[in-house]
Amino acid sequence: MANKPVTKYPTEPIKCWSKMKDLRRKHFRHTWEATDKGDPIITGITGGPLHAFLAGFGDFANPSFGPYYTGSMRDTKLNIKYSEAAEFKGYPRELCSSMRNHLGQLSLGLSTRSPEGKVFKPTFILQEAECPSMSKTAQIFAEELGVPHFIIDESYDDVYENRVFLIEQLQDCIEYFEKSTGRKFNDESFIEALKIECRIGSVMAQVFALMRVKPAPIDLRQIQSLRLPTTTGSHKKETLEYCEELLAEVQDRVDRGISARGIEEARLCFEGLPPFFFPDIYRLPEQYGAIFVIGDLPLRSFSLWDLQDDGTTTPAPSLEEMMRKLGMEELHTREDGLVLLVDNLTRRMWPACNPFGKSRLLLKRVEAWKCDGVIIHIDRGCYGGQCGTLDAKWDLDKAGIPNLTFEGSQADCRLFNERDTVDAFYTFFETIGLNRIDN
Amino acid sequence: MFEEFRKIVEQRHDYAREWKKKTGGKVIGYFCSNVPEPLIYAAGVLPVRIFGSSEATLDAEKYTHPMWCSFCRDSFAQGLRGHYDYLDGIVNVCGCQHMRQAYLSWTKNIPIDYSYEIMMPAMSLHYASSAKHFNWRINHFKTSLEQWLGKSWIYSSAMDDAIEVYNTNWGLLDRMYEMRKASNPPLSGAEALDVVLSSMVMDKKEHTELLSKVLEKLPEREKRTSEGARIMMVGSPVYDVKLLEYIESLGSTIVIDDSCIGLRYFHGQIERQADQVAAITSRYINRIHCPHHDLGYPGNPNRERPSAVVKLAKDYKVDGAVFMLRKFCDTHGFDFPAVRDTLKENGISVLELDIGVEMLLGQLRTRFEAFLETSILPI
């Protein structure tokens, strides 16, 4: 039986791509050069808005999951080597694969060594207690490297006392790090960075919101890379310029009807972190004329939203409007900045590890991004991210939304079976009425 | 001598139903030993720890994927099968993600009148802001409990009573554990676990009465011919008493543990102060924590647990330690290398045993006996 003809949309390469790559290269180079420049190196996995906070200590480098994490996602030998190094130390294989990779780099001495062999030491470690695995890993790094550390506790409910608790922690963090590193916290730098971060958060949310349009101007695979500068530089002016350029380009694509991939027989949502060593998982639907139009990872990594109780999300308003809602006309003091920063923490698309809002958010995401189905990654070892995931899957079933779950791992290629996963994807595509495209 | 405790554990659901009929009261199940039980007790509610029955958990795996720890899957499975149908409410403390998953799945799939999750800061509660916030959270929980029960207030006299009841019971458990320091202790590890587990599922007053009688007679108990190797049990919580019996049948006595359903559950009294809620909260702040809450604090990144475990090992003169690592337990998984290395540096051999709902006893036997022969017993 002949396949029905597929609607073709015009498509173009993304102009911002090369700028994104430049910013990424700069980020890596900064890690290697920071010590020589006198810039602090701050390890720990944080995302915006805490980057603005860290900017108060200087132009910091942030190796995040370890300087060789990304490289190990391209090279399976390294991927296995880092995981095995952690396991050799006694960390069970059931632990979070990203943290095992991170710990493996630590035990191999790579967390503090540039490719040229230059040794550097983190200045301090700041970690959001987003998930227990990350918090514990941050502590292990602090113990082993003899580096001061601070863990920011966040609750999953937005109550006044929690905001007070967050502000107190941030103030204590400043005091502690000043005392332990000798570096002074610069309020002006912090406030400047915070304003930039608020703008970036709002701009990126608008970019994601534009992906609700059909045909989607960019798809999940593209935004997964395009959002990367915000994961480590969401406080920088150059990142804001890049994001504004990206927004303009995406808006232009929407205005002209330019699509991500030229085809859009179905729109899909991806829930969970992808297997980072297999980024083409996001491109599998193209074999069937479909694309992923949204996923929770890029939404989480940095964008700011107005979140309603029923899970509806709209891009966060302008910085001025955010301040107005808090009764502020300008950010005069450190306290003003911290109040706004804490407000931003509640505007993120909820931390990964809050299970209670997951179903609501997912159902609304499917509705808002007009998705025809959801593919859910059951990520072995990612207990923080997986909490509530199967419950969300059953809620999708109740709502009649086609979905597929597959087992894998975000960072350990040994726990992922590519062939079986691809087969499962293709079977799912056929069950939602898609046909394989010949070309 | 300890049969009554075993019976209560095995028939804990019947006990709770009987208690409800007798008193007309409500029962709240809880998942984590950081839940402030005395507060619940002061409200006239019986708090019972939810734990599994070491049965297969296929029904739970529909909601909690098999990669979640078996303690939580088993606990949730018991709920799905209706064994806990007498519960009027469930309470959890934000800690281990696995328990959070079990709690979430329970609230979504098992009808329950009341549920509450208490946020507990992960950063060490020795840090003033964390302690203050946790105190606020406990007060908020108290208010929520009062609203659910339709009480205007949990009276301070009731709080006083509850503190007294709990301190007394915990004090007796401490006394029982002290007896295990002696050579050839008068009770086995399995018996001790029966006692502690039963304390978590009974009215504490009744448990105190039972335990007092046993402790009076215990020093006169006929000793076993040999205690074998003195073993410390560390790591993930183990509620399978038969597993401990099996390990002890291989030539050892478990003389101490560092478990949230063992020593860490009851160790530490509530120091009275004018603010009774703060007094209760203090007790939960100042005790030895599970790895999840042992994250150090500004100025001290180091974990407290490894040195606390070593101190216990020395106090109880253990010959070796068995690290019970429940499959998928990341809480203890991250801690394992540090605890193992610290014990070894202090001359204490460590065996790591993977445990789950289903155990391969043959393999366990081989590994444990090899551990005894190679690491503990003199050549």
Strand line-up in the sheet with most strands of chain A: 5-4-8-9
Total beta strand runs of chain A: 9
Shape of chain B: globular
In terms of DSSP E residues, the strand content of chain A is 5-15%
Number of strands of chain B: 8
By secondary-structure content and strand pairing, the structural class of chain B works out as: alpha/beta
How many helices of chain B does DSSP assign? 15
- By DSSP (H or I, 4+ residues per run), the number of helices of chain A equals 18
Largest sheet data of chain B: 4 strands, parallel
- Kindly report how far apart the N and C termini of chain A lie: 16 Å
Overall pLDDT score of chain A: 91
Mean pLDDT of chain B: 92
- H/E order of the elements of chain B? HHEHEHEHEHHHHEHEHHHEHEH
Q: What Rg of chain A do the Cα atoms give? A: 21 Å
Structure overview:
The complex is a heterodimer of chains A (439) and B (379). Chain A starts with 16 loop residues before the first helix and ends in an 8-residue tail after the last helix. Chain A is α/β, with parallel strands linked by helices and 439 residues long. In chain A, a hairpin with a 5-residue loop joins strand 6 (305-307) and strand 7. The radius of gyration of chain A is 21 Å and the shape is globular. Helix content of chain A is 49%, strand content 10%. The model of chain A has no long low-confidence stretch (mean pLDDT 91). Chain A has helices at 17-37, 50-55, 69-74, 76-89, 97-107, 132-145, 160-181, 187-210, 220-226, 228-233, 237-256, 296-301, 319-325, 334-345, 358-368, 383-386, 389-398, 418-431, and strands spanning 42-43, 124-128, 149-152, 266-271, 290-295, 305-307, 313-315, 373-379, 403-408. Chain B has 379 residues and is an alpha/beta fold. Chain B is 50% helix and 12% strand. Chain B contains 15 helices and 8 strands. Chain B has a 4-stranded parallel sheet, sandwiched between helices. A 4-stranded parallel sheet of chain B has the order 6-5-7-8, sandwiched between helices. Chain B is globular and about 65 Å long. At the A-B interface, helix 6, strand 3, helix 7, helix 16 and helix 17 of A face helix 5, helix 6 and helix 14 of B.
